Amino acid sequence: MVGVQKIRLNNLNINVCNALIVGIIIAKHSPRIIGTKKKNGESRGVMSFTLRDSDVDTINTDVWGSEYFVITFYERFLVGDVVEISSPKISVKSGENDAFRPQVSSPFYLSLNEGTSEVNIFSGDTFSFFLPLLHIPTKPCAGYCGLAEVLKFSEQTNNVYVDLLVLVKSIQPPKSIRTKKGSDMTVRAVEIIDNTTPGSVFLDMFEIDTIQRAEEWCPLESVLFIADARVSWRSRMVRVQSCSRTVITHQPHTPEAEALRLFIRNQASCGGEVAAWAAWSGERASAASVAQIRDRLASGSPFSAALHAVLTHLDLEDLVSTTNVNIEDIRVRFADHTGELTARLPLNVLGDVFGYNADQLKMMTSDDRAAIRWRLLLEQCSAKLGVTPPRVIVLTLRRASSADPIPLY
């Protein structure tokens, strides 16, 4: 192409004309429709993606055009595609929109306009050079926030963004939800863990491209570096969300990522989740009464405990009646001679207890569910608890035997 100047991101300036830029897409965000329809019946839209062409050089790019053009562009180009961009407009970044974009190294941003700029899949000889760049985090791994700190955030926490290095524990199927404005959208929740706490946090993803990428993630094997995840609250539980600032790097090529994977793998072979809580709190899950557990809750420190008590509340109808499509646990209550204690029973533990998963329980009749819950309800039970105040999580639950210790105070 006559007059085209191939240029790297670290050499960009606003005086470059007819630039040709090659890089790999490391993040992208859904189209937005701008304003009302024009006289010809078309609306104008914009979408954005983040491009990288070296270990350190990244830039944000906006794509402008008709609604059809922008939506088609979004569907055609995916994270992981190596593309060549012809004749972009190069502009100096302004601070007004940076709060809603991924953090990048370039002081510029690119604008691609329908009919003026071109983007195509790159098929040159250096194609393989770009593929490893998809696994390099956009921020230093050393600066990430541990999930132990995230779990301490209060419900009043607003507009907080954190960098996370985590392992995928479980992946939920995509679900359709209705927003407060009445529109339908898809969300996918991924349960994530790290080496700072055995407690897990859920990552909510709303970006269709990211939701589809999650199909390739493997529980207890896939490590994610999540740059600028937004802290949120739902059902009185702290969660994190991907948003327009977020860049998710799958299987980052860093020593910290490999160390995390090995830590979780070794933890699984050394007693599982109950042992993990005990190791984290610095003590084994020793027998405790309800009053002793409630006293320790007030201290704010994490701990694990073994509880011998009567299960006074377990309502499997909560699985059916709830309006929360992303329910991960149900409420239970225990009582002994010292008082009552409310806890959360995760659905995976519920499945271990009764031999039926949540979907199977939902499909049963109300009478069948009632018969199942009476296997434990109002019975003396033995439970292992993991506590990150104010959350009390049931790790294991079964009917008590005569060998189980009963605290006397």
- The count of β-strands is 21
Distance between the termini: 84 Å
Largest sheet: 8 strands, mixed
Q: Helix/strand-derived class?
A: alpha+beta
Helix-residue proportion: 10-25%
Quote the average pLDDT. Answer: 87
Contiguous uncertain segments of 5+ residues: none
Strand-residue fraction? 35-45%
Rg, Cα atoms, Å: 25 Å
Please give the count of helices: 12
Write the layout of secondary structure elements.
Layout: E1 5-6, E2 19-34, E3 44-52, E4 58-66, H1 67-76, E5 82-86, E6 89-92, H2 95-98, E7 108-113, E8 118-121, H3 127-130, H4 147-150, E9 161-171, E10 175-178, E11 184-193, E12 201-205, H5 208-213, E13 223-234, E14 237-241, E15 247-250, H6 255-268, H7 272-281, E16 287-288, H8 290-297, E17 303-314, H9 318-321, E18 329-336, E19 339-346, H10 347-354, H11 358-363, H12 366-373, E20 380-388, E21 391-399
Parallel strand pairs: 1-2, 4-7, 12-14, 16-17
Antiparallel strand pairs: 2-3, 2-5, 3-4, 5-8, 6-7, 9-11, 9-13, 10-11, 11-12, 13-14, 13-15, 17-18, 17-20, 18-19, 20-21
Could you walk me through the main structural features you see in this protein, from its secondary elements to its overall organization?
The radius of gyration is 25 Å and the shape is elongated. Strand 18 (329-336) and strand 19 (339-346) form a beta hairpin. Strands 1, 2, 3, 4, 5, 6, 7 and 8 form an eight-stranded mixed β-sheet that branches. Strands 16, 17, 18, 19, 20 and 21 form a six-stranded mixed β-sheet that branches. The chain has twelve helices and 21 strands. With 409 residues, it is of the alpha+beta class. It has helices spanning 67-76, 95-98, 127-130, 147-150, 208-213, 255-268, 272-281, 290-297, 318-321, 347-354, 358-363, 366-373; strands at 5-6, 19-34, 44-52, 58-66, 82-86, 89-92, 108-113, 118-121, 161-171, 175-178, 184-193, 201-205, 223-234, 237-241, 247-250, 287-288, 303-314, 329-336, 339-346, 380-388, 391-399.
